[in-house]
Structures are given as C-alpha cells and as structure tokens.
C-alpha cells in the first residue's frame, strides 16, 4: 500500500489556479490553516472557495486568491465577523453564493452522492432564492409541496485538518464534533488531509474508539503532518482556539497598515516561521496580560 | 416582587416563550434568552433539552458565561442539529438585525446583497429554521432601525413570504414570540401581522409604537409583562447569572 505523506510545499503544487476548493472545519474550528497558509505562499489564484467559513476566508480574500465564495456563513465564532470578508463583500471584490447552512451541507451531500441536486425545505420563502438566481424549486411527485432543489457542490479538492491520520490516509478526529469533513472528502476529486500527528495504523485505536475514524484512506489523496496546523482555530483536544491571536488578527485586518505588519510578521515565511512568530507573540503578550490582571 | 430589573423581566418573557414546548431542543442566542431557557427548564418546562453550546446535550442549570457543568445526556454535533432542525423538534430564539411587520428577519446584509452597504453575518440557519420548526426572536434594543417596514433581505421567513412561497414553506412555519427590552409580541392569526401582547412594567404602549417602524396590531387593553416570582428571581440572581451579564444586554 503506497504511503501518501506529503510536505506542505508538495501539497501546494497540487492546487492550481481556477480550482474549486472545499475547506473543512466550521467557523473558527479545526480549519486546515497550515494548508491555507501554504496556498497563501503559492502563486495559485482565481479560486472558488466552498466553506462554512472562518478566518481562512479572510486570509484568502486578503491575499487576492478568491474569485468566488460559496458559503453557509463566515464567522470567527468569538468574533462575529471576519473584517477581510466584510471588506471583500462591501467592495464587491468577490462573487458570492450565500446559502442557508443546511442547504450548504445538502449541496455537499448531493455532490458526495453523485446527484445533481437534493430537495430541501430550507430556503423556501427567503431571499436565498433571489440572491442565487440560478436556484430552482422542485415539485414533489407524492405530495402538494415544492422544495428547493439544492444543486450539488462538487469540489476539485477538499482540505481538512484532523487530530490524527495514518500514512495511508485513514483519518481520525478526537474532538467533540466531526463537522462535515467526511462530506467534503466525498464531494471532492482529491482530498488533502493535514493532521496534528501521523501515527502507524496500529496505533489509531490507542485511547480512541473506532467511531472516531472519520473517513477511510479510499477518500484521501495526501496526508501532511502539521503540528498546530489548525492554529489559530481550535483543534480540541490538542488545543483550544487561540483567542488572543485571533483578536490580534481581527484587529490587524481592520487597518491596511496594521495588516502589512501582520503579514510581514506571520505570513511572509514558511510554516515553521509562522509557528515561531506565534510563540514570540505569546511571549510578549503574556507579561502584558499579567499586569492587566 | 417589585424590585425586578428590566433585564429580569426580559428573562421571564423569554422563558415564557418556551412554556408548553415539552420535550424538544431549546436553542437560545443572546445572554437573556440563554438565561430564559435555563430558567424555563428549572421551573415550568422541565422536559426541554439544552446543549452546552458545542456538541453535547446537558441536563442541569448552570450560569451563563460559564462552562456547562450538568450531566451529559446526549451528543449533538452540528450534523445532528441539522437533522433535528428538519425533523422539527426544536424551538430557536434568534436575534434579528431587522424585523418587519410580518416577521421577516434579516441577519445577512444591509443594502443590496450583491454589494452590501454593511455585511452582516449571513443568513446562517435562519431560512431553514423558520420553515421547519418554531422560531422566536429577541431584540435587546427595540428601535425603528430594527423594527423596519420591510427588511432589506429575508433571512428568516415571515408570514407573507411563507404564504407566497406555497405549502412547502407554510406547513411547519411557526413564528411564536418577539421579545424586546420594551415589550412582548406575537402575530395575529388573521394576516400574520405583529401584535402587541404585553408591555414591560414602566413602558407605555405609545413608547412601543414610537419605537416601531410599522403599525402594530393592538387589541384592547394591553397587559403588563408578568414579574418574576421570588423563586425565579433567586434562580436568576444566584444560579443562572451571578455575574450580572444580563445587565450588559439590557441596562437597568
């Protein structure tokens, strides 16, 4: 059985301009941020990004990588709105398809099931239908009801981040919620998984039951080991969201000059440089926090 | 009790929205609704189910702003929440940025959606919630900018929109209450326009009308929202919100 481990740089060459990429996780939770940072360093552009969005949307928009956003929402959870996303919307910089969260999941499910649509009640009577003029309804052949015919959301590539994987791409989450990472994997032509730790297959069930194995190697194209690779989003139980850093990100994103400084400090180097800069950020931030208390 | 604050009256009004709901999931957004559903379960609606805000169903009563410390009785990851939304055993209290006469609500964007003047959070789950299970609303600051003649974008489906969209949208459409810092509303059975149910103690009907950007249905004498009992006040002050977070949402 062929190993599927990749470096971050190798992964980055697999995504090409114009692709439709689905990004797993939810809001500011278990996002494949190291993979996203690798895309920020690559020349890729003109992406269609399909996501239950968090800070990856803001980062990709700020870097000018996004042509179209397909989303159920974009939120930093503890901070309601991502400032870069807000700016991109209010300047009309990106095309959008905004769906009800459940419609979004249904679109992924349709793609995973190789159907062109699935019926759903959500969306009826709302402006989701007028803001997405291509959406159609479908009459039930069995009852006097019409439903939204949610079109499939097929992906060229899916990016997800999990707690553990093995070298051949069996994928394990250890936190409270799988989110929809298995659907992204099944809706995509290729799925790249980053993880906190690559372990031998025989160790996957150490301290974890089999139902934590979220999806199997048959859906996985490549595996990248990226410790703290979801930072600054949460990756429970390995770590919680880095609220101080997220607040720093959101504050910088509101001001072009501050953003230049943020990008220089955190985004101009490689992943190791990023993690080192984050550690320095906390070394400097810690004494200030103590003096406030 | 006569010393209840406005925030405490709002807690009671939010709790009352869930009276009689039985064994369903109560999802509350905002501090005062969160206190309200926990108060309802601790008193007159013991069968309600509540989540810890993440992926577990938890029994017990715990303070807002603190981690849930009750007994875990179920797993509720987001995928199961969607299944539950579509199944219908849920009553959500959401916070609209705009709400209009027929209960259409907007949390998506102000202005034109193609290029909004102000991007808000997006429609989130509002379209699905409103056509599949009971929904109520909480508006902590009742003012004409929130109570508008017509919302810029329909995220949550109102009565006129549901009627126009047909049976699929109408079948499970069930808007229950709108609670604000001034008053409590429901919707008139005929036509589905917003109806004033009660005003909080110290608030006049005229004040409510002046703060509302459309005509309200008002039938006869409008009663006052009920006050908390002594036991309810104890629960709010000592157990559910000892840090007084409710006063940050609705100042005294």
TrEMBL record, chain A:
| InterPro entries xrefs | CoA_trans_fam_I, NagB/RpiA_transferase-like
* Leading EC class: transferase
Look up the EC number in the record and give it.
2.8.3.12
- Per the record, the domain of life is Bacteria
Q: Which UniProt keywords apply?
A: Transferase
A molecular function GO annotation? glutaconate CoA-transferase activity
What is the recorded name of this protein? Answer: Glutaconate CoA-transferase subunit A
Q: Which organism was this protein described from?
A: Amycolatopsis viridis
TrEMBL record, chain B:
Keyword Transcription, does the record have it? no
Q: What GO molecular functions are on record for this protein? A: transferase activity
Q: Which UniProt keywords apply?
A: Transferase
One protein family per Pfam:
CoA_trans
Output the superkingdom of the source species: Bacteria
* Family affiliation: Belongs to the 3-oxoacid CoA-transferase subunit B family.
- Protein name stated in the entry: Acyl CoA:acetate/3-ketoacid CoA transferase beta subunit
- Taxonomic source organism: Amycolatopsis viridis
